[in-house]
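Any chance you'd type out a single protein's sequence alongside its tokenized fold?
>
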Amino acid sequence: MAFREHLENVCQVEGAVLACVMGFDGIAVETHAPKAEGLDTDTLLVEYSALLDQVRRAAASLGNGKLEEVVVRTEKLTAILRPIDENYFLFLALEPNGNTGKGRFLLRVTAPKLLEEL
């Protein structure tokens, strides 16, 4: 299954705005954006990539183990970020009323499938 198909499956969750396989270097590998009109997706992805990298480094320096997930909820968007490996992560953006629990679940089960394809 191609990255795009995995991202389309993830975007079946209620309220999905966009899903992306992203490198910690800020470069998107593949993006599926069914509801991202009017959203500056490039800037959004780069900024959240930098945030996730900082959180990942902080967790490692504190001896807390590998980072498993980061959820950032704002007034207009919920972002769920899940590392795939040391170079890539999955990103899912949801509308405020989106199904965060199902989104977290889908990222958790999709990340190992993507790892096999990297």
Notes: The mean pLDDT is 92. The CA atoms of residues 15 and 95 lie 5 Å apart. The radius of gyration is 13 Å. The chain has one domain: 3-117.
